[in-house]
């Protein structure tokens, strides 16, 4: 029974294709290192909140469909794995950021924040995620909820969840900086992360900082001193890096080099900063991948990349064929580059952790032992303390052995 948790929320476990690859992958223990809280919102919840709060959502971006609604009754009879190969709704980078701008109009108080956090945790646990690093940008939601309360709320839900849920999922939080916002905002977020880290109640829970947000806005150089301060305080750093290139991405995806990448100097500065992990890293100079001493682990998010790079646009929306056009994945897999597979924004991209692994297997013809090894190795790149990491690595290894 996959949804034996207490609580009123439905979870999203995807199709029930027994004895299928998908079904096997759903059962393996997983590690999720790249997921944005507000991007995890279930479409059904977004619509419910919009109705409750009388918010009119952009009809172009938010369309309830059978495939991306997480109500179990809609997916129970769905045995067709191959139907998953098509993205029901294309999401360009611009679409995503239009959606991110609308979500906070509905998630605008502590109750709705609690709800989306709890649902996100249930959804990851339903896919047998055993270690989750969720990230979020602290926000002022209303007069009662400042950035501190925002983080306290998310941390509070994590505590409750870990104590009450019957399956164990270790949850950690990464505090994000939105590069489209001011340096002052970034400074506040770093201050908060450091303060929470000093507090005995949340010291272990907040493990790092992320720089994300619309990659076409802002500049890493402004945020660098703030991230450096966070690092000095013991927080680990992950940077969204090289998510967009200068070339015409819709017509010709090529490896970035020094001439094709207008963000080259920013990417270079990010690499020189030597973060603990890189997010996406789609357009990074080729020389970086071949340099053996600088193998910074990459958080890669297959569906998100196919969507934002619009790789499936010319192949009838076929996700697998789109993924085969990914600028780096094949090389990363061939060279066994350190990778962690993430969902990025499961609510926005209509995905889940099982589907990401499944898509990778299908697109690159990987066998299950390779995917299991990939997942197991990705725990090495987690930001939690060493003792927790070792314990989870042992648990994951044992569970994998039982399944394989
Ligand atoms: C960069 C992204 C992102 O923080 O409000 N975010 N940043 N690239 C992406 N690729 C598609 N997906 C999500 O979660 C939503 C926020 O996460 C960042 C954006 O800043 C977005 O507004 P939180 O919980």
Automatic annotation (TrEMBL):
<dbReference type="GO" id="GO:0009117">
    <property type="term" value="P:nucleotide metabolic process"/>
</dbReference>
<keyword id="KW-0546">Nucleotide metabolism</keyword>
<comment type="pathway">
    <text>Purine metabolism; purine nucleoside salvage.</text>
</comment>
<dbReference type="GO" id="GO:0062154">
    <property type="term" value="F:N6-methyl-AMP deaminase activity"/>
</dbReference>
<feature type="domain" description="Adenosine deaminase">
    <location>
        <begin position="29"/>
        <end position="398"/>
    </location>
</feature>
<dbReference type="GO" id="GO:0006154">
    <property type="term" value="P:adenosine catabolic process"/>
</dbReference>
<dbReference type="GO" id="GO:0004000">
    <property type="term" value="F:adenosine deaminase activity"/>
</dbReference>
<protein>
    <recommendedName>
        <fullName>Adenosine deaminase</fullName>
    </recommendedName>
</protein>
<keyword id="KW-0378">Hydrolase</keyword>
<dbReference type="InterPro" id="IPR032466">
    <property type="entry name" value="Metal_Hydrolase"/>
</dbReference>
<dbReference type="InterPro" id="IPR006330">
    <property type="entry name" value="Ado/ade_deaminase"/>
</dbReference>
<dbReference type="GO" id="GO:0046103">
    <property type="term" value="P:inosine biosynthetic process"/>
</dbReference>
<keyword id="KW-0660">Purine salvage</keyword>
<dbReference type="GO" id="GO:0046872">
    <property type="term" value="F:metal ion binding"/>
</dbReference>
<dbReference type="GO" id="GO:0006166">
    <property type="term" value="P:purine ribonucleoside salvage"/>
</dbReference>
<keyword id="KW-0479">Metal-binding</keyword>
<dbReference type="InterPro" id="IPR001365">
    <property type="entry name" value="A_deaminase_dom"/>
</dbReference>
<dbReference type="Pfam" id="PF00962">
    <property type="entry name" value="A_deaminase"/>
</dbReference>
<comment type="similarity">
    <text>Belongs to the metallo-dependent hydrolases superfamily. Adenosine and AMP deaminases family.</text>
</comment>
<dbReference type="GO" id="GO:0009168">
    <property type="term" value="P:purine ribonucleoside monophosphate biosynthetic process"/>
</dbReference>
<dbReference type="InterPro" id="IPR006650">
    <property type="entry name" value="A/AMP_deam_AS"/>
</dbReference>
<keyword id="KW-0862">Zinc</keyword>
């Amino acid at each position: 029974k996959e949804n034996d948790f207490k609580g009123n929320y439905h979870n999203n476990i995807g199709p029930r294709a027994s004895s299928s690859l998908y079904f096997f992958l759903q059962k393996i223990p997983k590690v999720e290192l790249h997921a944005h809280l507000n991007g995890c919102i279930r479409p059904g919840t977004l619509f419910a909140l919009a109705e409750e709060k009388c918010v009119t959502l952009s009809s172009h971006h938010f369309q309830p469909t059978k495939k991306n609604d997480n109500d179990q009754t809609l997916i129970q009879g769905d045995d067709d794995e191959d139907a998953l190969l098509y993205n029901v709704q294309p999401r360009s980078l611009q679409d995503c950021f239009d959606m991110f701008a609308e979500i906070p109009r509905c998630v605008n108080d502590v109750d709705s924040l609690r709800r989306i956090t709890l649902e996100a945790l249930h959804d990851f646990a339903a896919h047998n995620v055993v270690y989750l690093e969720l990230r979020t940008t602290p926000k002022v939601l209303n007069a009662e909820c400042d950035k501190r309360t925002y983080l306290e709320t998310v941390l509070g839900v994590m505590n409750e969840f870990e104590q009450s849920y019957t399956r164990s999922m270790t949850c950690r939080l990464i505090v994000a900086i939105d590069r489209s916002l001011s340096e002052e905002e970034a400074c506040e977020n770093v201050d908060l992360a450091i303060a929470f880290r000093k507090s005995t109640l949340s010291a272990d829970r907040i493990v790092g900082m992320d720089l994300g947000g619309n990659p076409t806005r802002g500049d890493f150089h402004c945020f660098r001193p703030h991230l450096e301060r966070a690092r000095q305080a013991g927080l680990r750093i992950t940077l969204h890096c090289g998510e967009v290139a200068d070339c015409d991405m819709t017509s010709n995806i090529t490896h970035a080099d020094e001439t094709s990448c207008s963000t080259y100097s920013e990417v270079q500065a990010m690499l020189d900063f030597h973060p603990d992990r890189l997010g996406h890293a789609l357009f990074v100079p080729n020389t970086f991948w071949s340099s053996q001493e600088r193998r910074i682990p990459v958080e890669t998010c297959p569906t998100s990349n196919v969507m934002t790079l619009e790789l499936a646009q010319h192949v009838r929306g076929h996700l697998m064929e789109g993924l085969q056009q990914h600028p780096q994945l094949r090389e990363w897999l061939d060279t066994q580059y350190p990778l962690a597979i993430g969902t990025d924004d499961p609510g926005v991209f209509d995905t889940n952790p099982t589907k990401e692994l499944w898509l990778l297997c299908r697109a690159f013809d990987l066998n299950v032992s390779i995917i299991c090894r990939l997942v197991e190795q990705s725990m090495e790149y987690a930001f939690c303390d060493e003792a927790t990491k070792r314990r989870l690595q042992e648990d994951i290894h044992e569970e994998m052995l039982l399944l394989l």
